[in-house]
Amino acid sequence: MVQIPAMKRVKGRAPLSVVVAIIGGLALAGIIFTEDLRSITEIAAKKEKAREKKRTSLPARTRASTTRLTVAEEARPPPPKKAFHPSRCSVTDGYWAYDRSKKLLYTDETCPYIDRQDSCQRNGRPDSDYLYWDWHLDDCSLPRFDPLRALEKLRGKRLLFVGDSLLLGQWLSLVCLVNSMVPYTARSMERSSTLNVYTAAEYNATIEFYWAPFLVESNSDRNIRLGADGRVLHVDAIEMHARRWKGADILVFDSYVWWMTGSRIKTVWGSFDDDGYEELDAWVAFRLGLKTWANWVDANINPNATKVFFMSISTTHMRSEDWGGRAGGVRCYNETRPVTRKGYWGSGSDRRMMEVMGDVLGRMRRVPVSLLNITQLTEHRVDAHVSVYTEAGGELLTDAQRADPETHADCIHWCVPGVPDTWNQILYAHLFL
């Protein structure tokens, strides 16, 4: 028998057969792992495909609600809005947002000065949601109205509103916004047909309103019941009114809606007693009247002592078809929510009149006048007019009149509190920051 000599064991090395066995085992495990991984991946892919098919078969609104943001996207805060600055922030670019938790600074029950024409809640309006909408700017943060800060800024000053009944509503709004912060014994109100004066004695401040719906003189300044057919304007005369405006520290003007009571306006160039007059297109007469006002401001106002503002068009809402009014709605009657469509513009704001306003103010060189453009934000508020919850001829509308909104719904004036508070919020942002 031939004997095979024993193999010498090399110290520190595994036998070749063992190495081969280990390598073979690892290769087999790798193959098995690869196959398992491929199977797991294929199963996961099939499940994801099934989920995607299920998602895409859902309605768009449901599909959007089930889409999840990544963790990074969920944690990302919205970009911060810039602090308000008049020269860098547009008050026309924004949206109305509902906030039922908002604390009202006053109501028509707590403020004793609101005219019955504007006291919607006191006159029986059944809904109140219109009070809880705030105007938010797209890119800037519009500051809240602070009554105490406003009073401090008005200390020792005379703020005078000059214009029509829409500006009268804004004046009432401002008075009511600060009134609760003024001690009862340190405030007073004097009212007449032309000049209304609210005095905060503790602050040596007055908030006044002067009636001049055209700014220039007209034969209807004292006889407001004079119809459009009998109304005559003196578009190049203003001194009778303007002499009362001198000495104010802050002047706020408006004029629009009275110019729109007809397509033509009767105009005289001499005395109202003259037999002849000329009929002008409304926008032509408006330009002439506004230029007369601008010339007076440039000649009589010291820009270092007086700030001057001009309120833009306060929109009317006479045609519910403009915004696709709710069922049963007539004009603004029965509307309870704003128009939310971005950039909505109806037939209640005349673009040509806006252009005239911007052009005349833009040509003023000596006295800078700030145009407070409230038109776009006002366009949306079909819900906030006094509608049938108002008075006519000094008397509240009767039940029979309220039942006829086609005839009696007032879609020009605004409930107070309401939209005029937002106008004053914008005025506050321009004046006091």
From TrEMBL:
TM helices/strands, residue ranges: 14-33
Keyword set includes Transmembrane: yes
InterPro entries noted in UniProt: TBL, TBL_C, TBL_N
Positions of the Trichome birefringence-like C-terminal domain: 142-429
Domain Trichome birefringence-like N-terminal per the UniProt entry, residue ranges: 88-141
Subcellular locations according to the entry: Golgi apparatus membrane
Record keywords, A-Z: Golgi apparatus, Membrane, Signal-anchor, Transferase, Transmembrane, Transmembrane helix
Membrane topology: Single-pass type II membrane protein
Signal sequence, start to end: none
Primary residence: Golgi
Region annotation Disordered: where it falls in the sequence: 49-84
Cellular component GO terms, alphabetical: Golgi membrane
Family in the record: Belongs to the PC-esterase family. TBL subfamily.
Matching PANTHER family: PROTEIN TRICHOME BIREFRINGENCE-LIKE 3 (PTHR32285:SF7), PROTEIN TRICHOME BIREFRINGENCE-LIKE 9-RELATED (PTHR32285)
Protein name, as recorded: Trichome birefringence-like N-terminal domain-containing protein
Source species of the chain: Eleusine coracana subsp. coracana
Gene: ga26076
